[in-house]
Amino acid sequence: MASIRASNVVPSSFPSSSSRCRREIMTVRATINMPKLRNGSSLSLPKLTTIGLVEELQLRSGYKNTTTTQFEKLSPSPKASDPMAIEKLYAIMEAVADRVEMHKNIGEQRNNWNNLLLTSINSITLTASLMTGVAAMGAGGAPLVALKLSSTLLYLAATGMLLVTNKIQPSQLAEEQRNAARWFKQLYEEIHTTVSIGAPNSNDVKEATAKVIALDRAYPLPLLGVMLKKFPKAVEPAVWWAPLQNRKTKGLGGRNNGNGWNGELEGEMREIVTVLNRKDKEDYLRLGKKALKLNKALAISGPLLTALAAFGSAFAGHGPWAVVLGVVAGALSTVVNAIEHGGQVGMVFEMYRSNAGFFELMQESIESNLEEREGERRENGELFEMKVALQLGRSLSELRDLTASSSIKGEANHEFASKLF
């Protein structure tokens, strides 16, 4: 073994008055003692290995020092958006937002029409009926003539107002505007999504423009000339969409073979179309026909009763039949008007048409995807299935249970596809 001994000698103090620094005197004494080696023996030292830092890290981490060169196929960069298409879509969004506000305001206005006309007509009718009864109790002379004339004029005014009100159906007009505001708002969100996560092009602009024009035609604002028929000969689903185009969802089309579609999913979609056509849409069309018949009967009965009441009030004092006709017909007219416009039968009819149209749109959307032979041109299957389930108010498992039950029971299955309405 070797030992090292060292001693330091340091001065204990330095005079403060000295102008120069003195050197430290350090004495180092070292003694090295080495072990004596025997004759013929040699000193063996451990071998030192020189290794690089990279190799050492590789050995510690367990990776071999191998060099491989691998070329990976880079995915193509997403298609750049067309700046002009984006500007046009923003312009369409502004127009759609304006239409949403416009239809919302007009819908509120026409709902106020319904309330004001209902209150005014019933007030006029009840006043005329009361005046007819008072005229029958009078002795005669000028007061009788004044009461008879006033009640007759009020009944005639109520008849004219009822004819106009029943023709335009304010409650149905308000429902049309509410539906228009709803679909325009949905279109606004669709365009916003396309601009946000997609790569808009000229086809997106054409499609958005076609949807706006289709909605304008389906829900016109003017009352004269282009107003929707309130008493159509045949009840058909409301149509507010442009012809559907087969377009796959951007960013999802190439993830897997078939674009998320397989034979099982196609079978499920066909069963859903069958259930929608057999149960949901058919049921709402049936209810729409009943609402239309009731509305027609009420629309004819109201003005007819007020006209009969006007005839009876004009002949008040010439017999009991005139007084009975004038008073009773006026009271019945008030009841009929309250049922028709207070119950908003026209709005109910339009709601049934709109619901049937909603299922018609779903049916066309599913069929347009199924008719497309190439899976890549369809909308992504998984996303499309989720959309259908949400629109019907079901989870994916409930949707599959519905299709399984429908395929087994067939027409004996009485379950509706939609759980929302």
From TrEMBL:
Pfam family, one: Chloroplast_duf
Superkingdom, natural source: Eukaryota
Positions of transmembrane segments: 116-139, 145-164, 297-315, 321-339
Keywords assigned by UniProt, alphabetized: Membrane, Transmembrane, Transmembrane helix
Keyword rRNA processing: no
InterPro entries for the chain: Chloroplast_duf
Keyword Membrane: yes
Protein name (record): F-box protein
Organism per entry: Rhododendron simsii (Sims's rhododendron)
